[in-house]
Description:
Oligomer: heterodimer
Number of domains of chain B: 4
Largest sheet of chain B: 14 strands, mixed
Radius of gyration of chain A: 29 Å
Number of strands of chain B: 14
Distance between the termini of chain A: 51 Å
Order of helices and strands of chain A: HHHHEEHHHH
Structural class of chain B: alpha+beta
Largest interface: A-B, 56 and 66 residues
Number of strands of chain A: 2
Number of helices of chain B: 11
Largest sheet of chain A: 2 strands, antiparallel
CATH class of the largest domain in chain B: Mainly Beta
Strand order of the largest sheet of chain A: 1-2
Amino acid sequence: MKMLKPVLVVLTGYLLLKFGIPFIGSQLHPGTWPVVPTSVMKMYMFFLIVGTLMIYSFSEEGYAAVIQPAVNLYVDPARGTARMAVILAVGALGAYVTYQYVKPTFDAPVELRSIHPAPPSSVKACVKTYQLQGLKNPFREDKASFAKHVEEGGVVYFQNCYFCHGDRMLGKGPYYDGFNPLPANFVDVGTIAQLTESFVFWRIATGGPGLPSEGTPWVSAMPVWHELLTEEQVWKVIMFLYDYTGHSPRVTAPVHH
Amino acid sequence: MTRAAGRALAAALIVALAAGQAMAAQGNAQNGKKVYERKCWWCHGKSGEADGPGAAFMIPPPRDFSLGVYKYKTSGAESPVPRDEDLFSIITNGMPGTSMPSWKEVLNEQERWDLVSYIKALTDMFEEGKNPPAIAIGERISSSPESIEKGKKLFVEAKCVECHGQAGRGDTMKKLKEDGGARVWPRNLWKPWTFRGGVEAENIFARISNGIPNTPMPAHAADKTGCGKLSVEDRWHVVNYVMSLADPDRQVKEGATVVPGAQVDALPKDENDPAWDEIPSAAFRLVPQIIQKERFFIPANDLIVVKVAFTADKVAFLLLVDDRTKSIVGDSTAEGLAWDELKPDAVAIQTPATVPESSEKPYFGHGDGSHPVTMMYWASGAAGQPDTSKLLTASGAGARTEGDAGAAGFASHASYHEGTWKIMMTRKLTTPNKDKETQFEIGRFIPIAFANWDGSNGEGGSKHTMTTWYWLLLKPATGSEVALYPALVFALLVGGQFAFSIIGRRKKR
């Protein structure tokens, strides 16, 4: 069975694309399983099959090994039933692939949003304007009352934020599934753990509507907190977020995605 | 490894495992206190008296551990307190539809047993070192049409209907309170995924037997003499009936964001037209408006089911909302069930005034100055008066103008039956007021959002429930090419292969 080799090559390639790539992705970003999109998958598989056929039929006997059994099937008078089956199967496969192309698809438009867009240089909240560059949490320095500030931040959290971000800070509050995008998961390393306190202050003070358009401000349910909380409450809730999750705020500029 | 050694190892493992379980069941109250003071006091309060900072913003309120009264117990009537396993199971699985989450992802098994020990120590209701026995559940009677039929009769005879409604959707006849005075609505039994004490047959059996302490839901287990209430066998029939009510159309499908509009020759006549049964539906979660002033924290309705049908020039929306009360202002029954000043029930469909070309949409909460939204609004009105329908354009919360319903061919019609509002709204696909009203285009994805006001729950104005943006798609009828092209390809491929085969055989000869 010389046919076995090219078939194995194609199969291995398929498995690598289907499971290998998502596996590598899942190692890089724990908790995710980034599958290869179907369209890309089709393209890769096309090249893989054509490429494999070309390589294996390059030499004379390779050509014979790959093509000859197929030709035989079509011309050998003794194999009428097998021939009939193959002819119908190839026809059905072609019809199926065509159907996949022409059938109307009703997949919702894909919406891409930048999770951590570049912040503005200053934030206007009510009557006050804050320069984000170098903006510091005023309560962080007050080491003596650290626990008190954290607890006061917790009170703010459980009266305002847990509905969406959740009692456990996993972004799964009692109403989380009614929102798209989903509320941020603060335990995950992808949110506050990689942000500076000034960035988090900006996000809380101006909420969803405060995002630039690459952050799709029109769909984010994150409220504009400067309309509902005082500046002190915002700084304290930030202390609480970091304390409860055990993360520390970044001290350099945040990473932009 | 010899066989004997293998067996010895297995035995050692089993012993170790068993010991582990016994230890876990002990729980260490001292360690439990530490976890409690980090994770639980925010709602349940520092000394367990349900007075944490979060407690004022939720219904149901958190459990007061100083009383030792628990809702979800499997111990029998002779024991006022639950079994350790009940507490462990609630802490592990949480209570859907409430603020009480499942803790299994963040606390390990030992920590959860430690918590059980600690909260038991917050009251003197538990007897030291004693775990009450579980209620007798007899033999599970498996579900069958006969059993369900028996259960249905018992559901009426045992007066479940007085609270849970004729159809089981929770449309109660009386206003119900928890012992502490908080409002409590009977569960909508068509949505078992909202059950707080578990969805397995055994869980429901325990609820029916013990009732739900701290709430008006009564115990239904027959007493020792077998008198009164429901026998073990009857309770299993009721369990089977309750489980038969589950309606998957009332469950949000994860990741489903599209309302698929179906093309029809003529629109259904009204909201009760059986023609609607053929139309596919989409279900969306309703969440309270906790985003802008005045925020609203204590919703009652949690779901809206939507169906859409359209013809060449008109579109019809059918909205289904399970609402335990029909709120008609001035109606004495409705007034008696209301928790606040009674207001009408209402729903609204929101779409962008101009369907956006790019991904940019109006802000989902009523749009904004430069991106207005259109709203089709219906409200149940007051006794002796017709209900209201309005076509509105809004640019931001509170900023709205009324449009010309007549020119847009806008009309709505609604009826309430056994705990469900069905509201049908119709409109022309296009209207003369092109800048201010959505022009519905067939085959195009149009952002759509919904809002609901439950009038008996004090909802009105900014206090309501809502959804974020989803998509409406008026699906064009599929053309003949969907069948034609695959057929052509099939014919070509089969024909080609035959030709190849015939020519090949000729050559060979």
